[in-house]
Structures are given as structure tokens and as C-alpha cells.
Design brief:
There is one protein chain. By secondary structure, the protein is an alpha/beta fold. It has two domains: 4-199, Rossmann fold (3-Layer(aba) Sandwich), CATH 3.40.50.720; 223-425, NAD(P)-binding Rossmann-like Domain (Rossmann fold), CATH 3.40.50.720. Helices cover 38% and strands 14% of the residues. The protein has 14 helices and 13 strands. Strand 1 (8-12), helix 1 (18-25) and strand 2 form a beta-alpha-beta unit.
């Protein structure tokens, strides 16, 4: 393998995963950061990271070579692919980003080079889907001329206390020597340490079940919330009581979106079904979680009817559009399900989110967000528990008409009601 001084790393994809990783690697190695989005490159060159994962001073002090020109990555010998792996409209894996990045690498691949994938995939994808593309584009032979590895990303967007170097990294390689080399370069920058998996497939499977497990646990909480709502029982109070037992696992009900928990299980179910196995538990959990936006919208409608508000042309504020709190990422946000369901009832819906990028929301969903909430809403749905909302940034009572309604999706606010408004939480 390469000597330390000869290692030249290329990170392909400079989003929530790739950029923080590039910054860490650049502290010890030559790093070229590549992204096909030239606007993204321009922003990073100016020291601005719209994902809010890397501060301007960290960007400006790094020596990363930022580019969208393939010619600039030819001299690299370790390629790390960190592009998104979304699902399509039929909830099947969309491998076009990762295969597109693989083609790019294949065009510059040389003998002895190593390609590491971090993007979430189903077990077998690296060797069965990506390697053939590398061989075709480069004319080289796998495990003879070039080598591969898989080290699943574990970035937690918006988590300022737990960065890439603070989370144990799973590594793997296509040969024992390559596995040792890949583990070595990661362990040189990951202070939390690494875990070397025995194979690429094991590393791929470990990643995809991490989020599948969380998805199923949250689905159970959501199903319990649906049951308790019919009983008139407060779910948060039930969880508080149950949590007094030492071995109770405290998960919370809510919307399950984003590019991890709301997507990764579909990669595993796709692979399972291709092997003639129907993963009923995983699919059931996904169905429950995907239906929560519709349930919350319907609950809002029922409460407005009970308060004698006419549904058509009523006004509702959605507070928050991002997929999680304190993070500008709007990809696969399930708040959009609430919006669309309310619109089908003829409700006028405003969206207010000081964390989300307005142009991104317009481009992704065709929605113009409001710059400032009004003061005549029949209901306010607190869909995302941004710190700015909880620390006095949103005085909910002043936004409502008389007898208005507050829907607290994440149970982030004190449970209360008075003569001026009604309160409900999931």
C-alpha cells in the first residue's frame, strides 16, 4: 500500500457526510474535494457551508483542494464516495448518484488505487453493482489492479457535540491488506476509534440495520400513540411512567424522514425481496411511520371542526419544514405530508422555518415559505422542535385566533390549555 506521504485522497460528494470527512482528512493528508455542483464548490471556496456542519473558520483554515473538474482528481489514489443514496417514487433504491460517482472514479482509476464507499447501500451493492462499473470504465481488474472498501457514514446532522471524529467508524476492505490500510487511514483521524469488519458485506449490512432498528422502534411508539389517542391517554405521560423501569428503551413517536431512517430500511427490504423473502416487520414499521403525517393532519382537522372552525379556507401555520431540529436539511422531510394533506382539505397553510433555506424549499417542493407568521391562525402545528422555537422565538398564543389549536408533534412544549387555545401532542 501507499506510504503516508504518498496518500492523496479524493472525497466525492461534499454534503453533510463528505465535507466534514474532507476537513478531518485534510489535517493529515492531501485532500481533493470533488462535487458536481459548481455552486456548492463556489460557496465552499468562499468559506460558506449551507449545511451548517463546518464553520467558516474550519473551512478557511483547511487546505482542501475544492473542484468540480474531473481533471483535478486524476492524481489521487484513494477515492471516497459519499454521495446520497435516495429512493425513487416507488420506494426502490435509486443508485444513479452512486453509480454516477463510480463512473467518474472509473475514468481516472489507475493501478493500485483504492475506492472506498460511504454511501448507504444494501449488502452486496459495492461488489455487485459498483465494482463492475469501475472495471468497465477503467479497463482494470478488481483485486488485481484496483481495490475497494466500505466504511459506512455515521454523521448525525445538526449534532454539534458529536462530529465525524467522535463516532466509531466501521471499516472494511476487499483484501486483508486493503482492509488494514483503510482501517489505518481512518483510525489516524477518527479519535473515537474504528471497528474493522470481516468483509465489505458485513460493513454494508451493519450500516443499513442501524437505521432500520431505529425505524422499527419509532414505529412501535407511533403505533402506541395512535392507540392511546383513541383511548384519550397522553402518550408522553405513558412513556414517562414506563421509563422508570431500568430496561425500558425510551423512543419517542413522531415524523420519520430524512436521508437515513426514512430511507435506509427500503434498501434492506429491496434486497430481501430480491431473494424471495418478504420482510414483514420492517415493511409494517415503514407503513406506520410513512402514515404519521396524514394522521397529524387529520387530527388537526378534527380538532378544528370540534372548535367550530370551518375547514375550507381556514388558516394553519406549520412551524418547521426540515426533517429534524436545528438542521437545514429538507430532504425527505415528512412534514410535507402534513402540508399536502391539509391542502387537500382546502386549508390555507403557511410554512415558517428560520433554519431552512427558502430557495431550497421552493426548488424541492414548489412552496413559498412565509418570512413572518401572521396572527390569525386557527391552528399552529409545531412540526420540528428547533431551538429557536423553544427559546422564545415563537410565541404561539399570539399567533392564534380565539379558541385556536396548538398541535405539538414532538411533545416539545409544556402540555397546557386555557380559555384561549387548545393543546394536543402526539
Amino acid at each position: 500500500m501507499f506510504k503516508h506521504s504518498d496518500i492523496k485522497i479524493c472525497i466525492l460528494g461534499l454534503g453533510y457526510v463528505g465535507l466534514p470527512l474532507a476537513v478531518e482528512f485534510s489535517k493529515k493528508y492531501y485532500v481533493c474535494g470533488f462535487d458536481i455542483n459548481s455552486r456548492r464548490i463556489s460557496e465552499l471556496v468562499s468559506g460558506f457551508d449551507k449545511t451548517c456542519e463546518v464553520p467558516s473558520e474550519a473551512l478557511e483554515s483547511s487546505n482542501i483542494r475544492l473542484t468540480s473538474d474531473v481533471k483535478d482528481i486524476k492524481e489521487c489514489n484513494v477515492f471516497i464516495v459519499t454521495v446520497p443514496t435516495p429512493i425513487d417514487q416507488h420506494k426502490n433504491p435509486d443508485l444513479s448518484p452512486i453509480l454516477g460517482a463510480t463512473e467518474t472514479v472509473g475514468r481516472v482509476l489507475k493501478k493500485g488505487d483504492i475506492v472506498v464507499y460511504e454511501s448507504t447501500v444494501y449488502p452486496g451493492c459495492t461488489e455487485e453493482d459498483c465494482v463492475p462499473v469501475l472495471e468497465k470504465m477503467s479497463g482494470l481488474r478488481f483485486n488485481t489492479d484496483f481495490f475497494c472498501g466500505y466504511s459506512p457514514e455515521r454523521i448525525n446532522p445538526g449534532d454539534k457535540g458529536r462530529g465525524v471524529k467522535d463516532i466509531t467508524k466501521v471499516t472494511s476492505g476487499s483484501t486483508p491488506d486493503v482492509a488494514d490500510f483503510i482501517d489505518g487511514i481512518y483510525s489516524s483521524v477518527i479519535t473515537a476509534g474504528t471497528h474493522k469488519a470481516p468483509s465489505i458485506k458485513v460493513a454494508e449490512a451493519a450500516k443499513v440495520i442501524e437505521n432500520t432498528q431505529r425505524d422499527i422502534n419509532i414505529a412501535l411508539m407511533n403505533e402506541l400513540a395512535l392507540i392511546f389517542d383513541k383511548m384519550g391517554v397522553d402518550t408522553a405521560s405513558v412513556l414517562e411512567a414506563a421509563s422508570t423501569k431500568w430496561n425500558f428503551l425510551r423512543f419517542e413517536p413522531g415524523l420519520v424522514g430524512g436521508h437515513c431512517i426514512g430511507v435506509d430500511p427500503y434498501y434492506l427490504t429491496f434486497k430481501a425481496q430480491s431473494l424471495d423473502y418478504i420482510p414483514n416487520m420492517i415493511l409494517s414499521g415503514r407503513k406506520i411511520n410513512d402514515g404519521m403525517g396524514k394522521f397529524i393532519a387529520e387530527k388537526t382537522i378534527k380538532m378544528m371542526i370540534a372548535a367550530d372552525f370551518p375547514v375550507k379556507n381556514s388558516k394553519v401555520l406549520l412551524a418547521g419544514i426540515t426533517f429534524k431540529e436545528n438542521c437545514p436539511d429538507i430532504r425527505n422531510t415528512r412534514v410535507i405530508d402534513i402540508y399536502r394533506e391539509l391542502r387537500e382539505y382546502g386549508v390555507c397553510v403557511d410554512i415558517y422555518d428560520p433554519v431552512a433555506d427558502h430557495s431550497d424549499v421552493k426548488e424541492e417542493y414548489g412552496i413559498e415559505m412565509t418570512e413572518r407568521p401572521a396572527d390569525d391562525y386557527n391552528a399552529v402545528i409545531v412540526a420540528v422542535k428547533h431551538s429557536r422555537f423553544l427559546n422564545g422565538g415563537l410565541t404561539l398564543g399570539s399567533l392564534l385566533t380565539k379558541n385556536g389549536i396548538i398541535i405539538d408533534v414532538k411533545g416539545a412544549l409544556p402540555a397546557e390549555s386555557n380559555g384561549n387555545f387548545s393543546y394536543w401532542r402526539l
